[in-house]
């Protein structure tokens, strides 16, 4: 016996499909990153909203801008214990060569623009923190960021797990590796 759908049920189902298609079409690369990482955590932390970009930094006592690669990541502690991180939890390469961390900064809680330099950061259970990692690069790399193809890979390790974010400067896309157990 076949079951017939009423016009109302059909239109409701069509509306759900259309809404899902619209949401999928609006998703950005960061949304894809978020979806990939919310399926698991790295050492009790869920990492989302990864952004890797080039920028310049000018110290308060200098007139010279320093070209850099900057990574910003939001970390949420979903474990039942505190997790302490430092710049050592992030290994970064530019075009396959390791680059040294210049600054490990954390956005103040409740602030949109005050970043503070840290040696380490403890994230309490249920707490969300936004971090930024800065790496000095040379001027030719900075100048050719969009015209040449540069690859930045940031590996985040916590506990016995690791995930790697990779960005191609020309395509401006970030890919995320599977979560690895070390």
Short description:
This protein has 182 residues and is an alpha+beta fold. The protein contains three helices and 13 strands.
Give a description of the structure:
- This protein is an alpha+beta fold and 182 residues long.
- Helix content is 19%, strand content 45%.
- The chain has three helices and 13 strands.
- The chain has helices at 7-26, 29-37, 139-143, and strands spanning 45-57, 66-77, 83-86, 90-94, 97-98, 101-107, 115-117, 120-123, 128-136, 151-158, 161-168, 173-176, 180-181.
- The strands form three sheets. Strands 4, 5, 10, 11, 12 and 13 form a six-stranded antiparallel β-sheet that branches.
- Strand 10 (151-158) and strand 11 form a beta hairpin.
- The relative contact order is 0.19.
- Mean pLDDT is 80; it is low at 5-30 and 32-39.
**Cα-based radius of gyration, to the nearest Å:** 20 Å
* Average pLDDT, all residues: 80
Q: How much β-strand is present in the residues?
A: 35-45%
Structural class: alpha+beta
Count of alpha/pi helices: 3
- Note the gap between the termini: 55 Å
Order of helices and strands: HHEEEEEEEEEHEEEE
Shape: globular
Percent of residues in helices: 10-25%
Low-confidence spans: pLDDT under 50, at least 5 residues? 5-30, 32-39
Largest sheet descriptor: 6 strands, antiparallel
- By DSSP, the count of extended strands is 13
